[in-house]
Structure formats: structure tokens, C-alpha cells
Amino acid sequence: MLHGFQTLLLFVFPALAIVAALTDATSMTIPNWISVVLALVFLPAALLAGASLGDIGLSLALGVGALVVAAGMFALHWIGGGDAKLFAAAALWLGPTGAAPFLLWTAIAGGVLALCLLGARRLSAMTGLPVRQPAWTERLLAPAGDIPYGIAIAAGALAAFPQSGLMAAAHLAA
Hints:
Layout: H1 2-27, H2 32-49, H3 53-75, H4 81-127, H5 135-141, H6 150-160, H7 165-173
Helix pairs in contact: 1-2, 1-6, 2-4, 2-7, 3-4, 4-6
């Protein structure tokens, strides 16, 4: 019974990362409830996964540090507020062992996302044909539109999650 509940809790992180990416893509916002739920569910998930108190403490410190850095990036208008909170929540879940892969994969995904959006925007502007499309695609293709970086954060988090201390602890406890 405990194994199934443990698995369910570990499923929360990837599921909410995907929801965050989809909502950012379609609305250019990441709802606060996603980051709040991730933060609240981390401790029970970590305890049930068998993470040590030291590892949990390091993950908490990393999450707070990530929030400070991301808040600075938000203050400089480099990322949105939802991106900052998602970044911190992801850092919390990924912990010290997942931090470097998370940063690497997020940077790669962000670069690919930016290039794809810039290319799609240029192609859309060149065709000039009126195409009926959902409002969210119009926002994505707007020539001076923002880039929904939550997509890159979620992709980086999902790529790094298997290398996180939480997943390692869950495998050892299983």
C-alpha cells in the first residue's frame, strides 16, 4: 500500500511540470497553485521516498536559493513571476544531484524553444496569410511576443528528474 502511495506522490512532480508547460504555452501564465502544490507535496514525497533529513534540508536550501535567484531574474524582467516560482519548486524537487542537469537541460530547452518560436514567428510574418487559429497560437506567433519559458523549465525538470536524489531515494526504498 505504501509503495503505491509513494509512486503516486512521485508522479505529482512530472504531472504538474507538464501542466505548467501547457498552461504557459496557452496563456503565458503559470498558475500559483502549481508551485504551491509542488512545494507542499515535496516533504511528504521525500519522506515516503526514503530521503534522509540531510538530503531534504539540502533540497530545501536549494529551493530557497533558486527562488532568490529567480526573483532577481524576475526583477530584471528576464522571466515571469510564474517562471520564477516554477523554477524554485523544480529545484526543490530535484535537489543537489539534479541541479546541474536541470540547469543544463533548461538552458538547452530554452535555446531550442527560442529558436523555434523565432523561426515560426518569422515564417508567420512572411506568409502574411490570414490563418484561422486559436488565440493562444496568435500570442505565441506575435512578432514581439514573449517566450513562455515555463516550457523550458518543465522540459529541463523532466529531463533531470531521473537523476534527482528523490528518485534515487525512492529506488533504494523500493
